[in-house]
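Section 5: illustrative case.
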């Protein structure tokens, strides 16, 4: 069956998904004629209510209250805390270590997963022992900012935990959170808990030497209940101050798609809590009255800080704009909700040692989620959701619905992503190849190749790339109305698009950077950059498009302009200028121009079976080894049962998915071969913890009929 466009799809069902819960505590208590008090709502009567709970009846506020079931017979739940440390100056290593140590000091079965490959996470793990692990298998923007939807997906994939907690890396958690979670673990239903942390501007406490509790400067154990009553602490109202937790990770959190929010850039925690509540699939516990975590300062003051790779980027305010934009076009977070009851919502209060549930109709922090003006995030301006036609990420463009632009010039992006040899990998793509672009990007990331940059051929691809965290720039001179399905080899569209690539490469060479141009249908098995750079100056390395396995590989018109390495030296720049000029005056694609200029028409400049010498510049052209850089027709590699294993035996750096017509056939060949690293339905790279089975069954349905529309 054809797949729907990604923005129309709902999250795929997971194993163990429970049916949505309906009803309310008050309804259930009324139905039972007051004989039982209900623990949490919805569909289940908790038979384990204590005699104290049975005697409580209705409280003076008119809401039905229940006691969360207790008892010591249940197994201690496994709690996993997920967080993503930030580098300085945005993050404080001292505060982060204090926070993580406080998590490890919590009672019970608690472990910590630090998401990210940065030195901050690695250093913390080295100091804090086996209960802290680092998992770098999440998606990042090119600035180094993690993606929130990838972090949540990683937590949801955790099969070795009962409860997931997602918290800012600088929030100190108190034992109260584990006590509460242990009690909630006995509720036989899917639930989601949200609570605001507290600001402590004069935080002069440290962990004891054994890490078990916080102490004052004199070593005396802190009793926060005595020192500062809970009602005197100021709640941390920023999005980063929210603590969220949920059970049963195998069950989905909410209906719909979690957008690609940038972590720590506002709104995402509040958006998630709001959508879980609106979906009515889980019991929602508002635990704001409990003091579960402390922040030593004010997170709100960190709003203007930015996570910048090597601290070379200007203000990251555009990242906050991305999150506001996504919140405006996904879910109901940004819009005024009609007056309604929330049957799944319960306020948590503590009386003596009991956690009590009170049925409520709105969140204690409702102004945090939905402002009085109907906008999100406490009055932050969000674009209205009216009259927005979505396709992919965007289809119509107006000041209110268009995603932010990147505030960086091409030169700034090159400076940011280039490696130590001032070399970059260039990918060029339009809307017809957006999914293939992302699969290409995902695999480069898996290979730790981060010196890539993307040229977008159209505004749709540019905005899509921004929301996917790519270092992207748009070519203002690229052809318009590029066809989705009819831009394959030999078409007029193909000829126009290919001529963009050589012109962009020339521009980058003139800026002083070496370029490895790689079409996005080139699958990388390893990083070829060191090998290509070693070819030396005044040398141009290109893939051969020859398919006969005997004879020269530099025959006429067999230079493939979809994969080549060009150095930023005088010989190469002059030769590229000649190629661009030749292609401009040609009615063909740019590929024949490469061969005719560099090797001469009919190969008059060939000096061996795999080399040419351009006489005006003395630029040597090397046709790259077939086994290491095979094209799509070489040895029928794409038809092998196991393409990956066969290429590994040959020692391939890459394999080009060319010599096949039509976009859908190309996508099908790559996916069915297992050389695919992107999930279009969730807009995430496939990780080790991802379910890749759908791509192994790719032949059972029509391939992404509308994936690029």
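Designed sequence:
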């Amino acid at each position: 069956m054809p797949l729907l466009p990604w923005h129309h799809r709902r999250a795929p069902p997971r194993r163990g998904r429970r049916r949505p819960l309906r009803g309310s505590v008050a309804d259930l208590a009324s139905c039972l004629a007051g004989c039982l008090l209900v623990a949490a709502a919805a569909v289940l009567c908790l038979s384990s209510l204590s005699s104290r709970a049975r005697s409580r009846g209705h409280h003076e506020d008119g809401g039905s209250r229940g006691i969360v079931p207790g008892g010591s017979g249940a197994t201690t739940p496994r709690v996993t805390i997920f967080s993503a440390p930030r580098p300085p100056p945005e993050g404080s290593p001292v505060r982060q270590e204090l926070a993580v140590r406080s998590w490890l000091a919590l009672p019970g079965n608690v472990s910590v997963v630090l998401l990210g490959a940065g030195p901050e996470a690695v250093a913390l793990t080295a100091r804090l022992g086996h209960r802290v692990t680092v998992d770098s298998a999440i998606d990042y923007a090119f600035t180094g900012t993690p993606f929130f939807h990838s972090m949540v997906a990683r937590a949801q994939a955790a099969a070795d935990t009962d409860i997931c907690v997602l918290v800012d890396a600088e929030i100190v958690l108190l034992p109260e959170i584990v006590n509460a979670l242990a009690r909630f673990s006995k509720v036989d239903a899917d639930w989601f808990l949200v609570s605001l942390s507290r600001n402590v501007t004069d935080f002069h406490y440290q962990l004891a030497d054994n890490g078990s509790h916080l102490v004052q400067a004199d070593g005396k154990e802190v009793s926060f209940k005595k020192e500062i009553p809970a009602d005197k602490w100021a709640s941390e109202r920023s999005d980063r101050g929210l603590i969220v937790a949920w059970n049963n990770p195998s069950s989905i959190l909410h209906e719909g798609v979690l957008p690609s929010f940038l972590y720590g850039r506002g709104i995402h925690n509040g958006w998630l809590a709001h959508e879980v509540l609106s979906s009515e699939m889980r019991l929602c516990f508002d635990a704001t009255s409990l003091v579960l975590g402390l922040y030593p300062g004010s997170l709100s003051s960190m709003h203007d800080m930015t996570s910048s790779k090597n601290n070379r980027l200007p203000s990251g305010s555009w990242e906050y704009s991305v999150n506001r934009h996504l919140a405006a076009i996904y879910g109901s977070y940004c819009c005024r909700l009609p007056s309604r009851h929330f049957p799944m919502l319960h306020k948590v209060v503590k009386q003596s040692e009991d956690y009590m549930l009170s049925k409520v109709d709105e969140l204690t922090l409702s102004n945090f989620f939905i402002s009085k003006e109907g906008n999100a995030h406490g009055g932050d301006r969000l674009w209205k959701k009216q009259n927005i036609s979505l396709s992919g990420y965007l289809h119509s463009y107006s000041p209110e619905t268009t995603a932010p632009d990147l505030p960086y010039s091409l030169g700034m992006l090159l400076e940011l992503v280039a490696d130590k040899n001032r070399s970059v990998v260039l990918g060029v793509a339009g809307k017809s190849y957006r999914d293939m672009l992302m699969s290409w990007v995902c695999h480069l990331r898996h290979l730790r190749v981060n010196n890539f940059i993307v040229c977008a051929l159209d505004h749709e691809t540019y905005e899509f790339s921004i929301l996917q965290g790519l270092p992207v720039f748009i070519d203002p001179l690229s052809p318009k109305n590029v066809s989705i399905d009819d831009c394959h080899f030999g078409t007029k569209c193909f000829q126009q698009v290919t001529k963009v690539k050589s012109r962009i490469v020339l521009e980058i060479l003139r800026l002083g950077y070496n370029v490895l141009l790689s079409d996005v249908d080139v699958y990388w098995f390893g990083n070829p950059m060191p090998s290509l750079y070693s070819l030396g100056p005044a040398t141009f390395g290109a893939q051969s498009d020859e398919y006969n396995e005997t004879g020269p590989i530099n025959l006429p018109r067999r230079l493939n302009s979809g994969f080549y390495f060009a150095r930023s030296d005088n010989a190469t720049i002059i030769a590229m200028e000649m190629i661009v000029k030749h292609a401009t005056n040609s009615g063909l694609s740019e590929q024949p121009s490469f061969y005719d200029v560099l090797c001469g028409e009919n190969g008059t400049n060939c000096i061996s079976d795999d080399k040419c010498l351009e006489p005006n510049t003395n630029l040597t052209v090397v046709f790259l080894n077939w086994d290491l850089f095979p094209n799509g027709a070489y040895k029928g590699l794409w038809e092998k049962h196991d393409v990956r294993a066969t290429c590994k035996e040959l020692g391939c750096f890459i394999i080009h998915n060319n010599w096949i017509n039509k976009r859908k056939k190309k996508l099908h060949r790559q996916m069915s071969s297992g050389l695919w690293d992107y999930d279009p339905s969730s807009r995430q790279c496939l990780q080790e913890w991802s379910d890749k089975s759908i791509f192994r069954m790719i032949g059972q349905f029509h391939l992404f009929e509308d994936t690029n529309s």
